[in-house]
Structures are given as structure tokens and as C-alpha cells.
Amino acid sequence: MLSPDQQRLVRIWDYCRFIQGTVSRFGGSWEAFSSDSDYQQSVAFSVLQIGELAGRLSDGLRQETAAEIDWPSIKGLRNIIVHEYGKVKLQVLWDIVSEDVPRLKEFCERHLPEDF
Fold it and tell me: What residues make up the domain containing 43?
């Protein structure tokens, strides 16, 4: 049985996979992302969900893994998306999708049992 933190990591992993699938579907380029509001909103929703789940991870896990993952920034981006969506910089969101989401997905895979 998975711990509550592991259950949240599975859900974070799922959202990472969803984002990667969305990138594949819409096109993996900045040009495609920057010109399609449906693409942007789909990704932003998944990033929001990741931030929500990250905020519910135990303090212990976040502290133990702080060198690997910047949990406060993940939660902070969630807050910007929820409360100040118009202030989300698309280039920052794209950079997160391109660079940080794959690393977060790999992090989840390393911290979950093989058969999750």
C-alpha cells in the first residue's frame, strides 16, 4: 500500500505524463505553445494541479528532497495560476514544461515503488 506522500507523487507523475502527452499532441515547439490558448490552458491546469498536490506533500518529504525539487516554486506557480492567471508569463510556463516537468516526472519515478 502506498503512503499518502506516494499517492500524491503518483498523481503528480500522472499530471507530468499528461503534460508530456499534450506537448506531443499540440506540438513540441514554443511557436505552437505561444499561439494556441487551448494548449496553454491545458498545460496551466496540469501545472496548477501539480502545485496543489505538491502543497499537500508532507513537510518531511519536501525537506528531505529540497535539494532535488524546488517545492516552494511549484506551489508559488500554482498560486499565480489560480489568483493571477493574467500574470503568468508564457515563456516561463513553456520553460517549466520543457525542462522542469521531465525532471519532476523522473523524480517521482525514483521515489515510487517499481510496480506503482
Answer: 4-26+39-110
* Nearest 10 degrees: Cα torsion 95, 99, 105, 106: -170
Residue 34 lies in a domain: no
pLDDT in tens, 47-78: 999 999 999 999 999 999 999 999 999 999 99
Q: What are phi and psi of 115, to 5 degrees?
A: -100, 25
Domains held by the chain: number = 1
Q: Quick check: is 33 in a domain?
A: no
Mean pLDDT in residue range 84-97 = 87
